[in-house]
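INFO  loader      accepted 1 record
INFO  loader      residues=301
INFO  predictor   begin
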Amino acid sequence: MGTIEIKNKKILVIGGNGYLGTFLVKALKEINANVFVISRDCKPSKTEFTIDITNFDETQKIIQKIQPDIVYHLAANISRNRDFSIYKDMTEVNVQGTLNVLKSLENSNAHFIFTSTSEIYGNNTSPFHENQVPKPVSPYSLSKISAEMLIETYCKNQKIQFTNLRVFNFYGENMPVEFFIPQMILTLKKGEDFLMTKGEQVRDFLYVGDVVEALILTAKSTNSYNQTMNICSGKGTKLSELAEAVNKTINTKSKIILGAIPYRNNEVWEMIGDNSKIKKITGFEPKTSIDEGIKIVINKS
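INFO  predictor   done
INFO  writer      dumping tokens
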């Protein structure tokens, strides 16, 4: 396995002020990397730049100034909505914004690391592996697979090293409440019943600390160049069982009301990933079980 030392490297995290980005930036600083952030809503400083990546001129100016060794592209317009009225806004950020970043890296030796999504697999046969033909189910997942293909085509033409990472469902402390697990924990802690679907969907959950570890190992591994890899636990959890486990851990009189909410159109029923490729290439090994992770989140919520 070819490894490189990322201590003292100039690392740019685009979307470094978002949920996952905040954890990644903290972890990179702890190993003494030279970290820069581009975000739409950060506080400007010598290392943080308030920029919208849909603005090519501003994006290029800052990236050319930084001359990063590694670029993590985490910024995205995220929505699970199946309504295609959002498609234009999705592609403007997730595809055109990605192209603006790539064009800003011309004549650069940077390793470009992109966070895609497990949603691109759609209703493929689970566990999902990287060689399956994508079946996106929403404007968001369609924009993400479009960005993946753009990155692969552009980077091979321009001889830029890249890695596309398909991140599965992750969770952690202080997560925005619109996500399933924090929404459930907050509702139950308030003593209210939690309304959800029948919960027959199976998901592959990974604790945010493990996701960050996978991101850092990818940057350290030269074998990850020009690869597409899943970041996942490799284990499935039924949402109804997860909800009952959370309810017991919180020890509340509140109830989980299964079937109170209808399923989404084009629902993906089983979304479990195969993580053998990232394990082989980077040595990644998930450390936090779903039970341990949920306890951490509940205690810190």
